[in-house]
Amino acid sequence: MKKQLLFIAIAGLFTSIASAADLYVRATGAGGAYTTVSAAITAANNGDRIIIQPKTDGSAYIETLTINKSLTFVSESNYNKYFIRGTININPAAGRVVTISNLNSGNFTIYNVIATGATTGGRTTINLFNCNLNNVDTTPANTTTNMSGCTVGGYVFFSHGRMTGNRALRMTAYNTSSDTSLSSNDVEVIGNATTSTIANQQTSYNFKFYNNFTAGFGVYSTKSGGSSEIINNTVYEPNGGDIAPIYVSGNGNPGSGGTVLLMNNAISFVVAQTNACIQNDGVVVVTASYNVATNAFVVEGPVTQNNNSGSVNMSFNNTAYTISGGNVNAGNPATVYTDLDLTRNDAGHYGGSNSWANYFPADNGGKPQVNYLVTPRAILSTGTLNVTGSAYSK
Description:
It is built from two helices and 37 strands. It has a 13-stranded parallel sheet, covered by helices on one side. Strands 4, 7, 10, 12, 13, 15, 17, 19, 20, 23, 26, 29 and 32 form a 13-stranded parallel sheet that branches. Residues 1-17 have low confidence and may be disordered. It is globular, with a radius of gyration of 23 Å. By secondary structure, it is mainly β.
């Protein structure tokens, strides 16, 4: 009986593997391909891959898509993007995984990638790799969004997931309602460039904001009793604002509380309504250490400080995303924060093991791209080596 059950299980596995298929989309229908992406989605089964041929004249497939299956979308032409002009609606379902690579949405702000609702009884996962997008809104509950190597003309709003190596106007971890099927991973925003803020306004997860080049951080709510981190970022705001470049406010949200660690950040901003580098309304416990600023290092509200420095000579470039000067070797000297060359941590987005250099250039000659890598900086002979990584191919 055991042998028979084992055979049935193995046979079922091979049946599942064999069922995955490649479906082609070509504007001319050459080779029996579908002429629209929508038609391919209708014909596809869960686990299939839809391979889209970019149109030779560079024009778009003009269609609004509804994705209601676990599917992968890729370009038929290596390293070239296919152009879809229309909103992409991803319907949620427990265990559904939708991966979109090499999509170009064009410069049309009304055409976005959207998760259409909350997932019940599990989680929906959305992967966006090497795409040019307008806006991303995947805020419904129980949705994980992993985005890497993308350029987003507008906003990215997501309830949970990992953002690495992207350029966007702004990014916000935001939940319309708390998750009921929790992920085991934190919210991670690592190695991105934003012209406006990176923010957290979700209460289900701790967040880790590492090695970004941004105009500022906003923390508007936190996981109750949680512990979150803003480490090794470059914060450059050349225009005056009404709040500090690092702004922490619970806003009376019932999920607020816990702690936020601010460490190894390099800061420069034009003083307008406040001259503070950090503001905290006191709902969240804030600790700031080894941060450096071109401004006087002023804080508003309760902030526990040590080893922060103001009036530091640094040069910032928000086009080339570079920083130089007094940030070098100014970060926490502990081994765990050492740079990739194993020297003392440089404050700013190139410092530490999550260095900006891990994620940019995002398009390395059209080659496969490592989009996440975590390795320990110190290994004990009695310890276990844990390495986590992921990549995608273009």
